[in-house]
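This is your field. Have a critical look at the following sequence-structure pair:

***
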Amino acid sequence: MTTGDFVRVYNPGTGESQPWYINDHTFIRDEATGTWHLFGITHAEPAAPEDEDSFAHATAPSLRGPWTKQPVALTVDPSYGESHLWAPHVIRSGATYYMFYAGGQTVGDLSRSQINLATSTDMVHWKRRPAGPLFRDGQEARDPMVARVGSQWVMYYTATETAAGGRSIVAYRTSPDLITWSPRETAFTAVGDGWSESPYVVQRNGLWYLFIGGSATNDYVGAEVYVSEDPLHFTATGQVGRLPSHAAEVVTDDDGSQWLSTAGWGTGGVDLAPLKWRARPYTPHHLYALSPDRNTVQQRTDGNSWARIGGPAGALIGGEGGLFATNPTTGDIFKYNGTPDNWTRIGGPGAQFVVADGTLYGLGPDRKAVFQWTGSGTAWTRIGGPAGALHAGGAGLFATNPTTGDIFKYNGTPDNWTRVGGPGRTFAVTNEALYGLSPNGGAVVKWTGSGTAWTTVGGAAGTLIGGGAGLFATNPANGDLYKFSGLPNNWSKTGGPGSAFAVAGDRLYGLSPDKSGVFQWSGSATFQWTKVGGPAASIATD
């Protein structure tokens, strides 16, 4: 399970004197008018969760916009016992829209967080349930989400094992009428000190998928996905994906396409990306580092812990297909088999190696041919002629002409390549698109996916970095790193300069300018970066 590139669809700071954020949110379409509605936690930056006292509201003629900011949908009511407003989720039943939300904790009793309900017939005017909260449950009861399961309604929400605390869980309650709810049960228990934030459950092809996220400061953006045949029981062994989203919602558009949303503190707004349901087992991504003397290859095991897995090495090459390393003396390439010092020689030297969608490609030492590893022994297949450089990622394999600099896309069969553009200073590939930097470095451009048409999406850049987490570019003047929002000329600063960057699925890592430390980006401008290791000569991910 993967996503395409995220695109910014709504900026809550539009018209404001300072940046604002949307956190947990919900999308719903008015079936009568066709208008889409967005509701969410909102506040001015920086993050202030205890002061989040209103729900943002925006409308649009289509899911992907343009979105128009509306007056807030609901404001906190202390007389109703509310201390803040969190995580609205809206559904329709009959002619009525139901907004479920977390109203905070009853004053003086931290073990009685309340889940509340407001209703509306037009999604503009909302009225709280006169009888008060639907129920109260523990110090972490929040983030409600309601789904129809058979003949009953099921509410999933974040909670702790007991009212006093314990491990984070996804709790659930059932109801025949959206008003009367059963005692709580447990649908999922997080492993160790993991989180079960913002649960979202969706059915597809007879199976049920649970999306949950975390709010650890060093890993703010990330939605883990679990699958089960039982919508009321999920386990950690059922994980099938991890996607670059915070407070993830799965939204089905009018045409049946499905999209994944993301938002959160310091992220600048609400983004959508096409959701790709792939029948592929989930393989956790790993971070690797080569010691400064290049004698040791290390793998990050947990937090700041690292384990030696091999060495020496000349270079590390990582991607969806695994980890590879070159011999520093011969240049031969080896594949890591998953256990320390267990490597297999799979080929001779090459001018460059890259990984695209589980396949390893190489450029011959003399750059006169492009090869694909067959996946067996040291057998390689020639798939193309001379190339200047290879660029690879989820969107495929690309190569530049060594004479003209023109860039070509590999179509999957030997010697079948299509010219998609002219020369560029460099190129980067994300899950869904190819990006380039103009020859003079003055503009970032995106290939439209058709012919040789490109669109300008940014200004001057030093280099480009692409992967599952999106597209990033460095400032040519000072090396600062920026993330592309998906909208032309809309970039946000994510950090300072680095000597190297690497993307693993939904995560971004950086090696400091002096190579003394390895850092992980949280995915949020609020939390920024956390040191996880170092020093290192280079880093790689798979």
Notes: The first strand starts at residue 2 and ends at 3. The radius of gyration is 25 Å. The chain has a mean pLDDT of 94.
